[in-house]
Write a structure and sequence with these properties.
alpha+beta, Rossmann fold, Tumour Suppressor Smad4, six-stranded antiparallel beta sheet, 22% helix
């Protein structure tokens, strides 16, 4: 019997209204505030999609295990991982996966872009069946490895890495080194993105969209300051293995963010961060053609 791990997100309504019983949000719901009511509608859509996934797996004779994404641990012994949510759920699942393929299910296509997802509630039965029978193409996505002062930092990043001050209103100061070239920067932080992550924050910052399977990564400072004393040339570009990017943090406080806000590692003055593209364990996502 095939074994499938289902990683799901909880809706904002489930987390903040049902579980945490936020008094302000409950008050808005009682007052029929339209945006609060949309939270409730989104919650119902998320639950219907998760129910459809479970029904499909059971009709296919699959042994499923459901795990809320915040409680996920390294996934081994499964034939397939299903991510039910949006891109954030795929990113969190990827941090615990090495070689098991993943199929993303967009739980709410009217509200979520979910570019990593190849299925919805309407076609999940067919797409999951094709995945289990090996009929879906697999796209290999290369991830970023981050080291802090020479020690590996956290999981491989599927989307991007942001190095910045924790306060978004504070300028970030750092020394950027690429090979023999070195510059001191003042900016709002530094983006480093994989090919798969090149269509999100990196694209919004002015970077290039790369083919998702490309074995390259790129960097780009955010809002880089250029003044009388500062003329920078390391303003963005692409790198291929074995090249890496090195940064020395020049402020008392800062942070490295891996794939969004949930994985954060604090920086101190003088800390050295190295980012490279990992050739090991490319992430296998099913059903995408990029």
């Amino acid at each position: 019997m095939k074994r499938v791990l289902v990683v799901y997100k909880k809706s904002a309504y489930q987390l903040h209204v049902v579980e945490r019983k936020d008094p302000w949000l409950r008050r808005l719901l009682r007052a029929s505030h339209p945006d609060a009511l949309d939270w409730l509608a989104a919650h119902r859509v998320q639950q219907r999609t998760l129910d459809a996934v479970v029904r499909s797996l059971r009709s296919l004779g699959v042994r499923e295990t459901l795990v809320y994404r915040e409680r996920l641990r390294p996934a081994t012994g499964y034939d397939l991982v299903l991510s039910v949510g949006g891109d954030g759920t795929v990113l969190q699942a990827s941090h615990f996966m090495k070689d098991t393929p993943l199929l993303g299910v967009n739980s709410d296509p009217t509200r979520s872009e979910a570019v990593f997802c190849a299925a919805t509630a309407s076609d999940v039965h067919r797409v999951v069946r094709d995945a289990l029978e090996g009929r879906l193409p697999a796209l290999l996505l290369y991830r970023l490895a981050v080291a802090l002062n020479g020690r590996r930092l956290g999981p491989l990043a599927l989307n991007d890495v942001l190095i910045a001050h924790e306060d978004p209103a504070t300028m970030s100061r750092y020394r950027l080194r690429l090979g023999a070239r070195c510059e001191d920067h003042k900016s709002s932080g530094l983006w480093v993105a994989t090919a798969a992550g090149s269509s999100s924050a990196m694209a919004a910052a002015g970077g290039r969209r790369l083919p998702w399977g490309a074995k390259r990564f790129q960097y780009r400072p955010r809002e880089l300051y250029q003044g009388r004393l500062t003329r920078c040339r390391l303003t963005g570009g692409q790198l291929s293995p074995p090249r890496c990017l090195e940064l020395v943090w020049l402020m008392r406080e800062g942070a490295v963010f891996l794939d969004g806000p949930h994985l954060k590692h604090r920086l101190r003055f003088g800390d050295r961060v190295t980012v490279s593209l990992s050739p090991q364990h490319p992430f296998r996502v099913l059903g995408l053609r990029r």
